[in-house]
Amino acid sequence: MGSLVLHFHQVFIFITPVDVIAKEDAYSQFFDQSWGNLPEELGNAREAGKQGLILFFEMDECPFCARMRETFFTRKDVQDYFKPRFLILPIDIEGDTELVDFTAKETTAKAFSQKNKVRATPVIIFYDLEGKQLYRHTGPTKDAQEFIWMGQYIATGAYKNKQRFSQYRRAQRAKK
């Protein structure tokens, strides 16, 4: 029995780090690398043939942000949908990281978040390739499928028809 417990601990020790590394890699692969210059990021998105830019406003102690990071952004289907269509950047609403906003003004992540009236997290904002806000969602999505529908809402242009995301989501659920 003692050797069985020892063997279990050895297996657990060797399996757990691989699982954690895989999750970390998947999360880091969801977000694009950035130097914090949003006008430059819009240019990068255009050059890469993307449809727009997504800013994911978050903070460390936000349980809803953590849930999205750990259960949605690490999923292959989510990454496969979003990565070809959008440049995706995280913004720490409490961060002192310097960035250049869409008007080419130097600021910090915290000040940029305040300027965009981000008070609760997560906030997901979709921008077109000119830096115009297309859609803003406050709070987590129910599940990964709803998050993908949010991307489809923008990518298909459904938002242009003055249809609210809640209506779009309801129609998508009815199709299932």
TrEMBL record:
Domain Thioredoxin-like fold: from-to ranges: 48-147
Species for this entry: Candidatus Venteria ishoeyi
The name this protein goes by in its record: Thioredoxin-like fold domain-containing protein
Cited InterPro entries: SoxW (IPR041737), Thioredoxin-like_fold (IPR012336), Thioredoxin-like_sf (IPR036249)
Origin: domain of life: Bacteria
Family annotation (Gene3D superfamilies): Glutaredoxin
